[in-house]
Amino acid sequence: MEDYRKYLIPDIVSKLSNMELRARLVVEGFIAGLHKSPFHGFSVEFAEHRQYLPGDETRYIDWKIYGKTEKYFIKQFEEETNLKSYLLLDISKSMDYASEKNIKKIEYASYLASSLAYLLIKQRDAVGLITYDEDIKTYIPPHATKSYLKLILKELTLIKLEKKTYTLQSLDKIAEQIKRRSLIIVFSDFLDDPNKVISTLKHFRHNNHEIIVFHILDPLEVSFAFGKDAVFIDMESNEELTTQPFHIQKAYQNEMQKFINFYKKECLMNQIDYVLLETNTPFDIALFNYLRKRSKLN
């Protein structure tokens, strides 16, 4: 069997030309790495039956019904029938950053989002895509068909990063639009006022949505391990600052750790799943963290 895991390194995935191929290789490579599929949906409470379809897991067949009708029916669960998923992708200019030998944060987020879209639709869950910066840019409501997956993947290839981050306004608008209880998955560097970000995430929780946060940062944004002299350019304002990074590296690292710890603590307190990812993290690890975190909600 071909070792799909070789495709899971971010800079290799970024060189593949087809977004659907990228998503498929990441998901199938992850499954191959675990030797079995861990994707059992988000089901927790039995609701009703539906007819068996090729590819369904036989362990969910109701054999009592088969004994009476000689037809196969699958036990369908409450969240499988009711829960929809939304992928919320930050496309502000700060997501355009990449240090040497790493891919841009927006690329990493897009590949992860496309992989999760592929995963969710593969298991017949409805998924939609929303992109935002200062305002909502794309709104694709959730569906669960393979043809719909192509629409989401195509949209991810057309993303343009032009505006500043304005998390409070954008996410609040999204929260107002999503009325029905859903799974909300957010991909962002969250380089905004942390209190405002948490406020918007609480808005989703107030509406009884489940939330998973993927906090995506470049390794140098965390370590600040630049050379002796550097010119920093704000990607959203173009403001320039020349400095010697090693003089402030320790102070920067302390502030960055406070920044990250704040999100971890606030997300935990508000029952929000938090996954910190650096863009050199292989996608199989990213997906493993997602599933491990998700399992704690069930």
The Rg value, from CA coordinates, equals 21 Å
Helix content: 40-55%
Any idea of the CATH topology of the largest domain?
Rossmann fold
Shape: elongated
Distance between the termini: 33 Å
Mean pLDDT: 79
Give the name of the CATH superfamily of the largest domain.
von Willebrand factor, type A domain
Strand content bin: 15-25%
The CATH class label of the largest domain is Alpha Beta
Strand order of the largest sheet: 5-4-3-6-7-10
Number of domains: 2
Number of helices: 11
Major sheet size, sense and barrel closure: 6 strands, mixed
- Return residue spans where pLDDT drops below 50 for at least 5 consecutive residues: 34-47, 77-82
The secondary structure category is alpha/beta
The succession of helices and strands, N to C, reads HHEHEHEHEEHHEHEHEEHEH
Q: What is the β-strand count?
A: 10
* CATH architecture group name of the largest domain: 3-Layer(aba) Sandwich
